[in-house]
Amino acid sequence: MTNILTLNNVSKTYKLGQPNQITVLDQVNLNVEKGEVVGLIAPSGAGKSTLLHISGLLDNADHGQVKIDDVDHTNLHDRKRTKTRRQDIGFIYQFHHLLPEFNAIENLILPQLADGVSKPNSLQRAMDLLVSVNLEDRAYHRPAELSGGEQQRVAFCRAMVNSPKLLLADEPTGNLDPDTAMHVFELLMKLVRKTGMSAVIATHNYELSQLMDRQIALKKGKIVEV
Ligand code: ADP
Predict the structure, then answer these.
(1) What DSSP letter does each residue of 138-164 carry, written as one string?
(2) Candidates 11, 13, 14, 95: which one to mutate for ligand 1, based on the most atoms within 8 Å of Cβ?
(3) Does residue 1 have a pLDDT over 70?
(4) 142 within some domain
């Protein structure tokens, strides 16, 4: 079985001046297989964002190895890491991070045009994604004209627009009320399952984590299976 993400003995310590240093990740090992969806459950401050940033090549570990799709990216040139990040990894955050001056469909078209996709193809792909999250009626609305749940649904589409192999989500429904969170999360899972992509999804919410294949937690810098 191919691993999309492999972390081997990954450690990260934030040094705030001796003796104030915290080891957030302590020789962490993690394998995420193709098509696998892993829930990362841990309280605030446990290191979820650090783990996701290192996995998504947004930050470097102090020690250890990060492989994406079986390719060791630990010591690769920045240009190659950026290419992998853009092509193979999708990010979703608690806040939508959509471009405020563009409408929903433009937010989905622009990254595709930047990647060389033709205008008609990017438009088709954007609309297909909006349909898949039941937002075709909101395609020409700007983020400020959308509800919180709708904004996040567009953000999910944005993360998936370039068909990444790995989705990394940091509390993707953390800003939503519980009912909306469940509804929006189910749509996200439907999208992920349909594409067969792998995902690591951080959440505080145990109920949501049960929709995933496997749950892990971060305790004192170590990953433990839940
Ligand atoms: P979580 O996402 O689980 O809330 P984080 O990964 O954001 O956790 O942070 C883990 C710990 O590391 C926290 O105690 C946080 O204050 C600390 N931390 C995160 N980033 C930095 C940084 N750049 N410098 C110093 N400490 C940091």
Answers:
(1) GTT--GGGS-HHHHHHHHHHHHHTT--
(2) 14
(3) no
(4) yes
